[in-house]
Amino acid sequence: MKGKLIVGLVCLNVLLLAAVVTVNLQQSYGQVLGARGDYLMTVGHMPSQSPGQEMVYVTDLDKRYTVGFYVDQNTKNIVTVSGRDLVRDFGRNPQK
Prior knowledge:
alpha+beta; four-stranded antiparallel sheet; 4 strands; 30% strand
Protein backbone atom coordinates (compact mmCIF):
# COMPACT_ATOMS: atom_id res chain seq x y z
CA MET A 1 0.00 0.00 0.00
CA LYS A 2 2.73 2.48 0.99
CA GLY A 3 4.85 1.45 -1.99
CA LYS A 4 2.04 2.17 -4.47
CA LEU A 5 1.41 5.56 -2.83
CA ILE A 6 5.09 6.52 -3.02
CA VAL A 7 5.33 5.42 -6.66
CA GLY A 8 2.20 7.43 -7.46
CA LEU A 9 3.57 10.54 -5.75
CA VAL A 10 6.91 10.21 -7.54
CA CYS A 11 5.10 9.89 -10.89
CA LEU A 12 2.99 12.94 -10.08
CA ASN A 13 6.10 14.95 -9.20
CA VAL A 14 7.79 13.91 -12.46
CA LEU A 15 4.67 14.90 -14.39
CA LEU A 16 4.49 18.30 -12.66
CA LEU A 17 8.19 18.91 -13.25
CA ALA A 18 7.78 18.08 -16.94
CA ALA A 19 4.84 20.47 -17.17
CA VAL A 20 6.81 23.28 -15.53
CA VAL A 21 9.78 22.75 -17.86
CA THR A 22 7.79 22.48 -21.09
CA VAL A 23 5.07 25.10 -20.60
CA ASN A 24 6.08 28.52 -21.92
CA LEU A 25 3.97 31.15 -20.16
CA GLN A 26 3.84 34.71 -21.41
CA GLN A 27 4.96 37.36 -18.99
CA SER A 28 2.16 39.70 -17.97
CA TYR A 29 2.57 43.44 -17.78
CA GLY A 30 0.07 45.49 -15.80
CA GLN A 31 -1.27 48.62 -17.49
CA VAL A 32 1.26 48.77 -20.32
CA LEU A 33 -1.04 50.56 -22.74
CA GLY A 34 -1.43 54.21 -21.83
CA ALA A 35 0.62 53.94 -18.65
CA ARG A 36 1.58 57.36 -17.31
CA GLY A 37 4.18 56.38 -14.74
CA ASP A 38 5.31 53.95 -12.09
CA TYR A 39 3.86 54.37 -8.62
CA LEU A 40 4.62 52.79 -5.28
CA MET A 41 1.97 52.82 -2.55
CA THR A 42 2.75 52.14 1.10
CA VAL A 43 0.75 52.42 4.30
CA GLY A 44 2.01 53.89 7.54
CA HIS A 45 0.95 55.71 10.67
CA MET A 46 0.62 59.47 10.71
CA PRO A 47 3.25 61.19 12.77
CA SER A 48 1.92 63.29 15.65
CA GLN A 49 -1.69 62.17 15.23
CA SER A 50 -4.08 60.01 17.20
CA PRO A 51 -3.10 56.35 17.56
CA GLY A 52 -4.52 54.19 14.82
CA GLN A 53 -4.65 56.96 12.23
CA GLU A 54 -3.07 55.60 9.07
CA MET A 55 -1.84 57.23 5.89
CA VAL A 56 -1.32 56.04 2.36
CA TYR A 57 1.94 57.26 0.85
CA VAL A 58 2.09 57.37 -2.96
CA THR A 59 5.50 57.70 -4.59
CA ASP A 60 5.87 58.60 -8.26
CA LEU A 61 9.00 56.67 -9.22
CA ASP A 62 9.59 58.66 -12.42
CA LYS A 63 9.39 62.09 -10.78
CA ARG A 64 10.75 60.83 -7.45
CA TYR A 65 8.05 62.60 -5.46
CA THR A 66 6.02 61.32 -2.48
CA VAL A 67 2.58 62.50 -1.33
CA GLY A 68 0.59 61.31 1.69
CA PHE A 69 -3.18 60.87 2.00
CA TYR A 70 -5.40 60.11 4.97
CA VAL A 71 -9.12 60.03 5.75
CA ASP A 72 -10.35 62.67 8.20
CA GLN A 73 -12.42 60.65 10.68
CA ASN A 74 -14.77 63.58 11.40
CA THR A 75 -15.63 64.66 7.86
CA LYS A 76 -14.82 61.35 6.06
CA ASN A 77 -12.91 63.35 3.43
CA ILE A 78 -9.59 62.38 1.91
CA VAL A 79 -6.94 64.87 2.98
CA THR A 80 -3.71 65.39 1.04
CA VAL A 81 -0.54 66.01 3.02
CA SER A 82 2.14 68.12 1.34
CA GLY A 83 4.53 66.07 -0.75
CA ARG A 84 8.26 65.58 -0.59
CA ASP A 85 10.79 65.83 -3.41
CA LEU A 86 12.99 62.78 -2.90
CA VAL A 87 15.79 64.07 -5.13
CA ARG A 88 16.08 67.22 -3.01
CA ASP A 89 15.73 65.29 0.26
CA PHE A 90 18.40 62.71 -0.56
CA GLY A 91 20.66 65.09 -2.47
CA ARG A 92 21.28 63.12 -5.64
CA ASN A 93 19.48 61.74 -8.65
CA PRO A 94 20.23 58.02 -9.15
CA GLN A 95 20.76 57.00 -12.73
CA LYS A 96 18.11 54.85 -14.36
